[in-house]
Specification:
Distance between the termini of chain A: 44 Å
Oligomer: heterodimer
CATH superfamily of the largest domain in chain A: P-loop containing nucleotide triphosphate hydrolases
Organism (chain B): Amnibacterium kyonggiense
Largest interface: A-B, 40 and 34 residues
CATH class of one domain in chain B: Mainly Alpha
Structural class of chain B: mainly alpha
Order of helices and strands of chain A: EEEHEEHEHHHHEHEHEEHHEEEH
Largest sheet of chain B: 2 strands, antiparallel
Strand content of chain A: 15-25%
Keywords (chain B): Membrane, Transmembrane, Transmembrane helix, Transport
Number of strands of chain A: 13
GO cellular component, one term (chain B): plasma membrane
Distance between the termini of chain B: 63 Å
Shape of chain A: globular
Shape of chain B: elongated
Structural class of chain A: alpha/beta
CATH class of the largest domain in chain A: Alpha Beta
Number of domains of chain A: 2
CATH architecture of the largest domain in chain A: 3-Layer(aba) Sandwich
Number of helices of chain B: 10
CATH superfamily of one domain in chain B: MetI-like
InterPro entries (chain B): ABC_transp_perm/SBD, MetI-like, MetI-like_sf
Strand order of the largest sheet of chain B: 1-2
CATH architecture of one domain in chain B: Orthogonal Bundle
Helix content of chain B: over 70%
Family (chain B): Belongs to the binding-protein-dependent transport system permease family.
């Protein structure tokens, strides 16, 4: 079940190899994130799932069915796709953009529009925006419309190619939370591509860290990767080496809370100590939220 | 006061039915328009499919540019005389004017398609649109203003050049110019020139209106315009949404 890559290789006619030998199983109804620097082949791998790119060698299976046997257009209509900069049709209204795929698959226009309105609610957009054009929306609103469009045909699989890469950090934070909420509500098999390790750790149940040529540097849950980086590359990539995630507790004179600072000395957060002692047990989620704050502190 | 006399000449109702015992303005105008119309239709039939193919696939662009430039260099009057000496009929004349009209329309078509954001097309394909649906629902509407711009250029060229067929005895508004020249009747000559000019401007104006209406809502007019400026739409009132701009 889920999506399976079997020894996938992609070589372009000019001889460059985007992906060398990639095998991974993406479980159903959870989020897998491909993360890596540019040129690691993550987008190529994502686009293989809906046959926007065909592998040179190897197989990709969705629910045990090999996709090379499925007609690309039909396959794409059953898979939601959300991209950076939304890729909305500028000459269609928001509601028509969301209704694109249902209309393609033969849903009557009026019904598709009606359902599109419901999807706007789902992604947290006001219905008053339905008859606007994409050019009249903010970047964050456009991305929400993009997500609604990706969900419109109620696909089992949702592909997201750096969908929040072009919005400002505050809006990105909101959109990430919305996506987590949607994921809890809908339980799609989501494949998410990003170069932002914090985003990967926040959204992914399974994180695949990629090196050049689609080589898997490490695969696992965020906790496993943070606790046990498989190599120096991974340690460096997740920031453990730079000390970004190695936090030190600093005693405060007054109050019960303990201040955490990172290796550079930036305040990263506090550990609350309601009973006057430190609660160190739930370090998993804590390290996650702390790391986000680190970013903002570092950027400020 | 040659210009005023020429206007008077045009406004003289007699000239609309007959000029020097030959075809009057109405008939010449009709023939001029008909020949131009035929040429524009065949130009579109040739240039649009090729231009859309090049624009959609990105293939054959270099070849098209070379051919268009070569064709542009062909002297219209020369080719017209060669072909009309062979056969003094409408089809060879139309052929020459099609050659004249194809380059601007071809350029408008492929430039119109190429100007569309690649991400929009990529997203449409990833949504599951067939190539035909991409062309029909995405590329054509978005490229329409530039395609019609090319059509305007082609039409203008053709209407102006159709005047030349009068050299070979085929009816056109050029008859008044040539006839006037032969008879040293400069008033008639000027009148002929004004008629061709006004016709060209009128048709161009008509196409300009069409072009305006073909610009899809939601798409900013003019290429330099920012994406925030959208035509024919009220200023968005800030709706209470969960995020700011």
């Amino acid at each position: 079940m889920g999506i399976e890559f079997r020894h996938v290789r992609k070589t372009y006619p000019d001889g460059t190899t985007a992906v060398e030998d990639f095998s991974v199983t993406i479980p159903s109804r959870s989020t897998t994130v491909f993360v890596g620097s540019s040129g690691c082949g993550k987008t190529t791998l994502l686009r293989m799932i809906n046959r926007m790119v065909d592998p040179t060698e190897g197989q990709i299976l969705i629910d045990d069915e090999e996709i090379s046997g499925i007609e690309p257009v039909a396959l794409r209509r059953r898979i939601g796709y959300v991209m950076q900069n939304s890729g909305l049709l500028p000459h269609r209204t928001v509601v028509d953009n969301v209704a694109t795929v249902p209309v393609l698959t033969g849903t009557p226009k009026a019904k598709a529009r009606q359902e599109a309105l419901g999807l706007l609610d789902r992604v947290g957009l006001d219905r008053s925006l339905a008859n606007r054009y994409p050019g009249q929306l903010s970047g964050g609103q456009q991305q929400r419309v993009g997500v609604a469009r990706g969900l419109a045909a109620d696909p089992n699989i949702l592909l997201m190619d750096e969908p929040f890469g072009a919005v400002d950090p505050i809006v990105r934070d909101e959109l990430q939370q919305e996506l987590l909420r949607l994921q809890r509500e809908l339980g799609k098999t989501t494949v998410f591509v990003t170069h932002d390790i914090d985003e990967a750790f926040l959204l992914g149940q399974q994180v695949v860290i990629l090196q050049r040529g689609g080589v898997i540097a490490q695969i696992g849950s965020p906790q496993e990767i943070l606790a046990n980086p498989a190599s120096d590359f991974v340690a460096d990539f997740v920031g453990a080496k730079r000390g970004k995630r190695r936090l030190t507790a600093e005693e405060q004179g007054a109050g019960d809370d303990v201040l955490l600072v990172d290796a550079a000395g930036y305040p990263a957060g506090v550990i609350s100590a309601p009973d006057g002692r430190l609660a160190l047990s739930n370090s998993g989620p804590l390290s996650r939220s702390v790391s986000n704050k680190t970013d903002q502190a570092g950027d400020a | 006061m040659l210009f005023l006399q020429a206007i008077q000449w045009i406004l003289d109702p007699e000239h609309w039915s007959e000029v020097n015992f030959q075809a009057g303005i109405a008939e010449e105008l009709g023939d001029h328009l008909w020949l131009s119309f035929l040429a524009v239709v065949f130009t579109a039939a040739v240039a649009l499919p090729i231009g859309l193919y090049i624009g959609h696939t990105g293939r054959g662009r270099g070849f098209a540019i070379v051919v268009a430039n070569v064709v542009r260099a062909v002297p219209t009057l020369g080719l017209l005389s060669v072909l009309l000496l062979v056969s003094l009929t409408i089809p060879p004349a139309v052929f020459v004017f099609v050659l004249l009209g194809v380059p601007p329309l071809l350029a408008g078509a492929y430039a119109g398609l190429e100007a569309i954001d690649r991400q929009t097309i990529d997203a449409s394909r990833a949504m599951g649109m067939t190539e035909w649906q991409i062309l029909r629902r995405v590329e054509l509407p978005l490229a329409a203003p530039l395609i019609l711009g090319g059509l305007r250029g082609a039409t203008l060229q053709i209407i102006a050049s159709v005047t030349l067929v009068s050299n070979f005895g085929i009816n056109s508004l050029g008859d008044f110019i040539l006839g006037g020249l032969a008879a040293n009747d400069y008033v008639q000559m000027t009148a002929g020139a004004i008629l061709v000019t006004v016709l060209a401007l009128l048709v161009d104006g008509l196409l300009a209106v069409l072009q305006r209406f073909a610009t899809p809502r939601g798409v900013p007019r003019g290429r330099g315009a920012s994406t925030a400026r959208v035509r024919r739409l009220p200023v968005p009132n800030r709706a209470p949404v969960s995020e700011g701009n």
